[in-house]
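Is adenosine-5'-triphosphate placement plausible here? Inputs below.
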Amino acid sequence: MSHQSTIRFIINPTSGPKSRQDVAALIALHLDKNKYRHEIVYTAHAGHATDLAKEAADKGCNIVVAVGGDGTVNEVARGLLYSETALAILPKGSGNGLARHLLVPLNIKGALRIINRGYTSFIDSGNINGHPFFTTAGIGFDAYISSVFAGNSKRGLKTYVQLVLKEVMKYRHLPIKATINGSVFDSDCYVMAFANAAQYGNNAYIAPMANIQDGMLDVCLVRQLNFRKALHLSYCMLTKQLATDSAEYFQTNAVEVETEQEIMYHADGDFMGKASRFSVHMEPKSLKVVVPA
Ligand SMILES: Nc1ncnc2c1ncn2[C@@H]1O[C@H](COP(=O)(O)OP(=O)(O)OP(=O)(O)O)[C@@H](O)[C@H]1O
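Reply from A.M.:
I modeled the complex. Tokens:
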């Protein structure tokens, strides 16, 4: 009988700059063949990775690897929730928030070394209006940026930063009613970010204290933003500090938000649409992941 573990690589051919040939060749070269029997499949359309991951989990596959950015990681991970199949990541996006949070190397060879060791652990996931997320979700400006970014043909960090700089002073806060830890309050909302992982990606830390295994959601509320506060917030995010001058932080396992007019929301950087009621909660230790020891 074979003692090999089974592993399926799901490659999003549209994410990141590398060609599909490169990744498949690197997998063939660096994966431990004594330990793993592997197969490689490619996504054909948005959403396909979830079906491919579910199918692998149903067949009892030991590990499913998301090869792409946080959008691909989200689609694969949601197909593996509450299963015995572990998610691994070969980071190929521009932000790589979950890979960075889990300290997975950002190069394919290094990430394959972590898979070859095969050490696993369980992490929490979040859920916003029925959509699972693994790094962050949010309402307000960050969701607005994800909506503009989605329609932009150019990707990458430079495009993202240019977009934020162009839009940050134009976007206006909106009134919300939030329920957190039993207290109900009215507030302005420029951004309300719900963090499972500490960062959005690219080492931009929206919730520096977030622990992905504590069963808690770290909420960062920015009520209003002017130029000085925007600079301070950006500086704190990039230096992994709490921006107590411009933001408030809460820890909770669930948040309810109501808004007078519909407002945009995102899950793991993917634009989800608009809503006027938001229900956000944690699902503790719901995903098995391959992590550095
Ligand atoms: N074959 C495909 N064709 C078109 N879109 C796809 C395909 N496979 C997956 N997608 C979509 O591509 C989206 C973006 O993928 P992903 O986030 O992994 O890459 P990226 O945009 O290059 O990275 P980043 O988000 O870090 O910039 C995913 O949300 C997914 O829905």
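Short version: The pocket of adenosine-5'-triphosphate is lined by residues 12-16, 43-48, 68-72, 75, 93-95, 155, 269-270 (CB under 6 Å).
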